[in-house]
Design goal:
Layout (H helix, E strand, L loop, with lengths): L1 H14 L13 H15 L12 H14 L3 H7 E4 L2 E4 L1 H10 L7 E5 L8 E7 L6 E3 L3 E2 H6 L14 H17 L1 H4 L5 H7 L7 H19 L5 H12 L39 H13 L3 H7 L8 H23 L4 H12 L3 H8 L7 H19 L1
Antiparallel strand pairs: 1-2, 3-4, 4-5, 4-6
């Protein structure tokens, strides 16, 4: 019995798995899974900055950065500042990270020059613990701040708190010179604010440039037109004679990207026709009769320029008649899909379901939509009665 108990304990001991020391990272599946779980937890917290709330990806990046520099993740989140769409460290955090890394003594500062003048400056220094060597950063002076443009920028703290800015800048330069791995290639928020290039273009020029871009976008979004009507307009401005020579068909530069209605002629300019042209009226009437949609019928109206009142009245009458025919034809569906939609709406006994069916009307031809909306309205009134 004792031997059996020992055997069971041995089996349990053999099955026991030593706990894995998995760290947050992105180099293997275990560390990445841990990063995602921790990121979801932090993203659901209301204590993290707004850039991380509900954003798991940002939290995972912050966790990875905290692991690389050995800092607390929440501290990294609170001190990773976004300035002009760039991630930056706060100066206090960078100094604290340097002091806590264990390789150097705490940062100290040495001021020189006359306070209140351009010669006033500061340098940061520390001692490397392993060698006992004193390390000293670059000299930061008011003259340097003015030469680099930091001092005179709008909203700059150099005028209101120059001593603090000298210390912050001296510390960040020393850290990047002797321990760049702590900064991870990022600048401090104050540095980015001082060095960010501001657009100095006058507002009037910016507005003009914006308007021009908007106009260009509108022009590019429109379908290209044939060069023939434009050519006629130019010739009428140069030669105001009542008779104009029609451009040859072969002179067209580019075809219409959207085909004209069935039977539409493409060799008649919009404004160059004489009044009372029976041949032109006949072509227009033929195009109206062969139009397959209300949109095609409406398009024909732009070709009536130059006709007399009687011809225009004839065209308008034919256009209205053809539009009515298309609408009536749409009310009597001929395809299986149209018949199916109409039949389903007429047989529907639930207003909510009828509302869902109405969403299909938007995908039909515009000439058909009105007829289907009539069917919908009629059936809805019957259900609500």
């Amino acid at each position: 019995m004792t031997a059996q108990v020992m055997t069971t304990e041995e089996i349990r001991a053999n099955r026991a798995v030593a706990p894995r020391n998995t760290q947050v990272g992105m180099t293997n599946s275990d560390s990445f899974d841990l990063a995602q779980r921790a990121g979801k937890l932090l993203a659901s917290s209301g204590l993290v900055p707004k850039e991380y709330q509900g954003n798991v990806a940002n939290c995972v990046v912050a966790l990875n950065m905290a692991c690389r520099i050995g800092a607390d993740p929440l501290m990294v989140m609170q001190n990773l500042v976004i300035v002009h769409n760039r991630p930056t460290w706060s100066s206090q955090f960078l100094i604290a990270t340097f002091n806590a890394c264990g390789r150097f003594s705490a940062l100290r500062y040495e001021f020189f020059g006359e306070q209140g003048t351009d010669t006033w400056g500061c340098r940061a220094y520390a001692t490397e613990i392993a060698t006992g060597e004193k390390i000293t950063g670059s000299d930061i002076t008011i003259a340097l701040a003015k030469a680099e443009g930091w001092y005179g920028k709008g909203g700059s703290k150099w005028k209101t708190m120059p001593q603090q800015m000298l210390m912050y800048r001296a510390a960040s330069w020393l850290v990047r010179a002797y321990a760049p791995e702590l900064a991870m290639g990022l600048h401090t928020a104050e540095e980015v604010q001082d060095t960010h290039l501001v657009d100095v273009t006058p507002q009037s020029e910016q507005l003009v440039e914006k308007v021009e871009k908007t106009v260009d976008n509108i022009r590019n979004s429109r379908p290209a037109r044939t060069a023939k009507p434009e050519t006629v307009v130019v010739e009428s401005a140069a030669e105001p004679a009542p008779e104009k020579t029609k451009p040859a068909k072969t002179a067209k530069a580019t075809p219409e990207p959207k085909p004209e209605p069935a039977g539409m002629f493409d060799d008649e300019p919009e404004q160059a026709q004489a009044a009372g042209d029976p041949e032109r009226v006949a072509k227009l009437l033929e195009s109206i009769a062969r139009a397959n949609s209300a949109a095609d019928v409406r398009m024909i109206q732009r070709y009536t320029n130059g006709l007399n009142d009687s011809d225009i009245e004839t065209i308008v009458s034919a256009r209205e008649k053809r539009t009515s025919e298309l609408m009536n034809a749409a009310a009597q569906p001929t395809t299986t899909e149209k018949l199916s939609l109409k039949a389903r709406m007429e047989a529907c006994n639930d207003s909510d379901v009828l509302g869902e069916l109405s969403t299909e009307i938007e995908f039909l031809d515009p000439a058909i939509q009105q007829a289907m909306w009539d069917v919908y309205d009629k059936r809805l009134n019957e259900l609500n009665a």
